[in-house]
Every structure is written in C-alpha cells, then in structure tokens.
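Glycosyltransferase family 92 protein
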Amino acid sequence: PLTQCSSDPHGEKAPLVLVNGTHTLLVSAYLEHRTGKREVSEDNRGKRVAYRCHLCCEGHNISTPLHISEGHASIHWDHFGFRYGTADIMCPIPPACETPSHVTVTSADPPLFLEVLNQEERKDSFPHNFTLCMSTMFDFTNLLQLVQSMEMLQLLGVSRVVIYKTSCDADTQRLLDYYTDKGFIEVIPWSMSNHLKVSKSWKPEIAPGDLHYYGQLPALNDCVYRYMYQSRYVAMHDVDELILPQSVDSWNDLMPLLEQKYGADKCYKFENYMFPHTFKLPPPVSETHHRLRDKENPTWQGISGVNILKHLYHEPYTNLVRSNFKVIINPRAVIETSVHGPLKLLYSCFFFFFSRPPMQTGLTPDKLIFDGRVLGYSARLIQAVNTVLREAGLIQKDSI
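Predicted structure tokens:
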C-alpha cells in the first residue's frame, strides 16, 4: 500500500503522471465543489479499466493509511476521432477525508501524487476579471503577432494569459520570460508529446497521431479548472485571434452590456471573421481616416511573425460552417469544454453567437471586406509593442 504522499519532485505545474498498467495519463487534480472531486486525464478510448483513487488527507503522515476509493472515468465525446481523448476521473471523497491534499490513481511505483487544487470555492472577488486560456504552443516562432496579441489583450482588459508550452524559439522564450516576470503570463510546461504521438492537426486523417492537436483539449480543460476560482470570466482562443468589441473599447465595457441584456455570469460565443494573411491591402480610398501616417506605421524589421495592422480585410460570410466561434465563459458553469466552447454545463448558459467559416480558398482581393476596427487601437498598440520589444531586448531603440 502507498504510505507516503509526494508531489512531482521537479515542481511541474502539469506533471503528466502515467497510471501503471493502463493507457491513462493524469494531468491535474481539482477539488470539485459542485459535484465531487475531479481529475483531468488523457485516456485510450478503446480501453476500460478499473481505477482506484489513493487520497492523502489533511495532516497525513507516513504512519497514516491512505483513503482508497473507486474512481469512475468519463471520456469527453469531442475527441475528433483520435485514439485518445480527454477524460474526467471522479474520486469519491470518504467522510473522514473531506480535504484531500494529494491524490494518485492505482499504484504507480514510485508513487507520484497530484496536488489537489481548488481547495476553496469562491463566488466573488476574483483576482482576475478576465483570463485567456491560450493553447498549445508547439515550435512557435510568430513573435510579432504574439507581442501584438498580448498588448491588445491588455488594452481589452485581460490581466492573465495562460499558455501551455511545448516548444518555441529563443526569441519567443525571451518574450515569455518578460511577460512572466511582469505577472501577465503563466506558462504551463506541456510535455504531452513525450508520452503520446500528438497530431499536428485537428483530424487524424490530416495528420496521424494518437491525440488531437498537441493535446489541446486536456490543456483547455485544465485551464478552465485552474482558473475556476481565480477569474470571473475565462476566454479561449489562439494567438492569431482577438475578440474585438464593435461599439465599446474593452471587454470591461462590453460585459456589463451583455450581462444587462442576457444575465450575469453567462457563457458567450462571438462571431469569428477570417483575415487572410496572403493579402496586404491598404484601406479603401473612402476610409482615409483609417490610414496610418508613416511615422505611425513601424516596420519592426528583424522581428518574425505576422503584423495584424497589415491585414484589414476579412472573408465574406457563408453558411457552410457554423461551429467556428470563440468564447468568453463563466468557468464555474462549465464541467467539460472543447475548442469552441463548453461540452457539458452545470447549469444553462446563454450563447450569443454568430459563426464564420474557416479560410475560403480561391478568393480574390475584390471579394474581401474591409474592417479597420483594429486600427482604432493602433496608436496605443504600436507604443506598447515598441516598449515591450525594447525592454525584452529584442530590438534597439534606434531600430524603429
């Protein structure tokens, strides 16, 4: 029997514990105040095993026996056809162990326990109003768009960004370190590719593998639970996406309007326009007020990546695809989530959404639609980006 509780000796935030004798990886553990204790895991959908939960209770010492209960697994239905899918393992908590500090499943040798997070339920006064879950970062080099996105998010009212990182280039790592030191970004090392053959796509027929898109789904589910009691709202989108209000300046201004109309603490879906990077077109003549003066239009030479201020035309709307949207959610309402929104909710949420298709092939420039909304932030954005690039040591003062 296991008698010693211990967390990951390297202090990793998501240590990915293999359950011996199974095809299961444990990602994290959270105390579920709404339905019961929950672990986020990766599981082989074709295998069914019996799990035993070993709970370390508050005040546990080496002479105290562990509390053992039978674990019940539930695999999320949105696995995109891959062999492995995100799963929840529910571990019942016995009356004598109301506050478990660590948990492991079955008898891994040597035992490696996951710390049980979310010990305290919180219903208001959150440290963050908006947190963005951004996953997953794999061989990332799009430096300019990353810094532009981070600065745009701060202009919109976001105070924390969570990135599940597998690999990136040296300049991106320098930028991540800069934002981590500022307290804006939390980087979760994401080593799923060390355990499974992760796919580079969202469908196995496009890019073979055992798990959807570098383990994106367990990362998003972990992020929702990790910030469930740290943030009033959680948004989920990638570095090349932004939720831009049309009539107000920030999410802080937008959410009261939505809450007043639809109710507070809901889940909201937003329409997603695709701005092709293959076109760099100036604003039309009729939109001269959107044009940037030369001194306001830096080139950022030597900085790799996409400049969002150069891509101002989006694809036309079609009804071909109705699932490509982005969300801002109340995490305390969510039991399971996928890329484009919750799969399972604790209670009903209102979804305010329109959808936009993925990039349409064969479009010519005359078919694209101008949208200069991002230029409304350009003066503040350019100044902020220049400051970050200088302070992070990525450009010299006289290079702009």
